[in-house]
TrEMBL record:
A single cellular component GO annotation: membrane
Family matches, as PANTHER family: ANKYRIN REPEAT-CONTAINING PROTEIN NPR4-LIKE ISOFORM X1, CASKIN
Name of the protein this chain belongs to: PGG domain-containing protein
PGG domain residues: 25-137
Annotated keywords: Membrane, Transmembrane, Transmembrane helix
Organism in which the protein naturally occurs: Linum tenue
Pfam families on file: PGG
Membrane-spanning intervals of the chain: 35-53, 73-96, 117-139, 145-174
Top-level taxon: Eukaryota
Length: 191
């Protein structure tokens, strides 16, 4: 209902919380800038690695380790890293070019940030799997025992990113799709 000055509750909220939108815009831009830098680095590395096969290739262009399962793991992980980091980069660019209207903060921006963070995590994990597969291809015939320590050390960046960003992701998804003090915000189910 309107008050005595014919202002709706939404108008009053917007007027009284104007700085909240400015702070939210600044935080979203800073976060999207940082994450898009990481996504761009992963795109660059994954693209370069796709054309530089571990172990090299023969004169006819056939990879030396074509029959090794590790090469297929490398190629699949590198492809996944390339496409998921590209998706992440596009999501963060979508955040940076948003209008930042009040309604964008309810659905559009949290959805883009969530998709961006998930695909960025996926791209980092896939890049590290590709790294492990390429090391296995290069070292499997000389040093077998080195793979376990390298695999453990290579998983640290991915786990660290997950532990640092997972609370943010849960909060974004819960605030966007979860219940609120005003009732259910969304009928959509996240799978």
């Amino acid at each position: 209902m309107d008050n005595n000055e014919l202002d709706t509750p939404s108008d009053i909220f917007t007027e009284q919380h104007e700085t909240l939108i400015e702070q939210g815009e600044k935080w979203m831009k800073d976060t999207a800038n940082s994450c898009s830098l990481v996504a761009a680095l992963v795109v660059t590395v994954a693209f370069a690695a796709a054309f530089t096969l571990p172990g090299g290739s023969k004169d006819d262009g056939t990879p030396n380790y074509l029959n090794k399962p590790s090469l297929m793991v490398f190629l699949a992980a590198d492809t996944l890293a390339l496409f998921s980091s590209s998706t992440s980069l596009l999501m963060f660019l979508g955040i940076l070019t948003s209008r930042y209207s009040e309604k964008d903060f309810l659905r559009s921006l949290p959805m883009k940030m969530g998709i961006g963070l998930l695909t960025l995590f996926l791209s980092i994990a896939a890049m590290l799997i590709a790294f492990g597969a390429s090391l296995h291809l290069v070292l499997y015939h000389n040093v077998n025992w080195i793979m376990v320590p390298i695999g453990l050390v290579a998983s640290v960046p991915s786990l660290l990113f997950a532990f640092l960003q997972f609370p943010l992701l849960v909060e974004l998804l819960f605030s966007t799709f979860g219940p609120s003090i005003f009732g259910k915000q969304s009928d959509e189910i996240i799978m």
